[in-house]
Amino acid sequence: MREQTIAALDIGTSKICCFIARVSDQADGERRPRVVGIGHQISKGMKAGTVVDMEETETSIRAAVDAAERMAGGSPIHDVYVNISAGQPTSRIFSVEVDVAGHEISQLDIDRVLVAGQETLKDEQRFIIHSRPISFSLDGVAGATRPLGMFGEKLGVEIHLSSVAISPLKNIQTCLNRCHLNLKGVVLSPYASALAALVPDERELGSICIDMGGGLTSISAFRDNELVFGDIIAVGGNHVTRDIAQGLSVSEAKAERLKILYGNCLSDRVTVRDQIDIVQCGEDGQDHAITIPRTMLTSIVSPRIEEILELVRDRIIETGLADIVGRRLVITGGASQISGLEELARRIFSVEVSPELRGDFHVRLGRPVSVDGLADATAGPGFSTCAGLLNYAAIMPDEVHALSMERAKPGLFSRIGVWMKENF
Ligand SMILES: Nc1ncnc2c1ncn2[C@@H]1O[C@H](COP(=O)(O)OP(=O)(O)OP(=O)(O)O)[C@@H](O)[C@H]1O
Ligand SMILES: [Mg+2]
Question: I need a labelling partner for 302 at 20 to 30 A (CA). Which of 27, 97, 113, 376 fits?
């Protein structure tokens, strides 16, 4: 049983995290990563998932990777799987058909229809990061799971494509190269989080995963074990911290502490009698200790968390996602740890999300459950993306564009492969 070493790097707005893991083929075909090296560092040089200061980002990446390498035994890593949230990610399902003129469908036909799907994005200067067939159809009849060897006139595919603008990806690639790392694979952040936080049944039956991070909140949806939707909204837990700092005239560091210790997003759970001591920055530049009712903090935290959840809900309504994947919702990410979130999400999502699906959403909080070897400190919801990157790295051979690159020449992916080599 050959053991392989894989490495993941979550370049987040709040922290940069590196996991090194070993993975091998198990008798049941599962490839569950076992983490052997962990390094995480406060993220510098990043804003809302985008590199804004390359030198600072590079320093944070180096520190995180060094720590993980040391813990894993010292050998340097070269290839890493990285998440991307920048570059206005889009994720859409396209339907395309190709003529097969009544002959037996070969692998070449399947590749041809997949490439035709990928070609739908060719005019946009974007990089396709995920490309997965959701379902095939034969002569307009959907549901052909294995069209290979069947006969028909027209072969169709519903293909899910996720793409990002090229420049932000290029900036990440440059940062990695400066750290002597090779971008082995890039994964949409919400996709990675869902791979770690959803259990296999949830991915199979249909679920929505929300990752509330520092600067961003991302949404992904799975059905039949496939990613069918991914999106990112530029608000997260750091906005809550900033609201507290402004609303109570305290430093951001103190606001962060208040949020973690006393923050609650349910106003009816906190009574006026609850008091907290805070240190305000006064107009005279001096610090002043005062006591405030805890409801004051809740009245700042609650509207912002509500706003984030409502933005997510609106996106789900707009896209009709609940009709496709159902009413199961898993919330993860560092900011999901705010007290009262599960209950608030249940209330916000219980309003009518789709005409067919009335009633309650099933909401639970999620953390990485798909890898072994995480210590308590790194098994929390803030580490779902990094753990999910390992899962992606472990299952990577199934990716369709890897097949397309090899087989469907001259396909879009081979051209992008060449383009990446020439330009990066
Ligand atoms: N116990 C806690 N209670 C509430 N919020 C918390 C807690 N711990 C961390 N957070 C918040 O979680 C956020 C960071 O989450 P996370 O580590 O998932 O972000 P990130 O992955 O670095 O950022 P992003 O995904 O937005 O790029 C911060 O806003 C932080 O204040
Ligand atoms: Mg994150």
Answer: 376
| Same-domain pairing of 79 and 171 | yes
Asked whether residue 66 is assigned to any structural domain, the reply reads yes
Q: Does one domain contain both 32 and 61? A: yes
Asked whether 370 lines ligand 1 (CB < 6 A), one says no
Whether residue 265 lies inside any domain: the answer is yes
190 close to ligand 1 (CB < 6 Angstrom): no
Q: Answer whether residue 282 is part of any domain.
A: yes
Per-residue pLDDT of the chain (424 residues; tens, 9 = 90+): 678 999 999 999 999 999 999 998 887 778 899 999 999 999 999 998 899 999 999 999 999 999 999 999 989 999 999 999 999 998 888 888 999 988 899 888 888 888 888 787 776 778 888 888 888 999 988 888 788 899 999 999 988 899 999 999 999 999 999 999 999 999 999 999 999 999 999 999 999 999 999 999 999 999 989 899 999 999 999 999 999 999 999 999 999 999 999 999 998 877 777 899 998 887 777 888 889 999 999 999 999 999 999 999 999 989 988 888 998 999 999 999 999 999 999 999 986 655 555 567 899 999 999 999 998 889 999 999 999 999 999 986 445 544 443 433 333 344 444 444 544 4
335 Cα: distance to centroid of ligand 1 (angstroms): 4
Q: In terms of pTM, does the model score above 0.70?
A: yes
Burial of 405 (0-12, 13-18, 19+ CB in 10 A): middle
Q: Are 332 and 209 in contact (CB under 8 A)?
A: yes
Ligand 1 center–CA 5 separation, angstroms: 28
Judged by its nearest atom, the ligand closest to the C-alpha of residue 43 is 1
Query: For residue 227, what is the enclosing H or E element?
Result: strand 226-233
Strand partners, 151: 104
Counting ligand 1 atoms within 8 A of each CB, the residue from 11, 13, 14, 217 with the most, and so the one to mutate, is 14
Is the four-CA dihedral 124, 130, 134, 137 of positive or negative sign?
Answer: positive
230 lines ligand 1 (CB under 6 A): no
Give the helix ranges, DSSP H, for 152-251: 166-178, 189-197, 200-205, 237-248
CA of 384 to the centre of ligand 1 (A): 11
H-helix or E-strand spanning residue 199: none
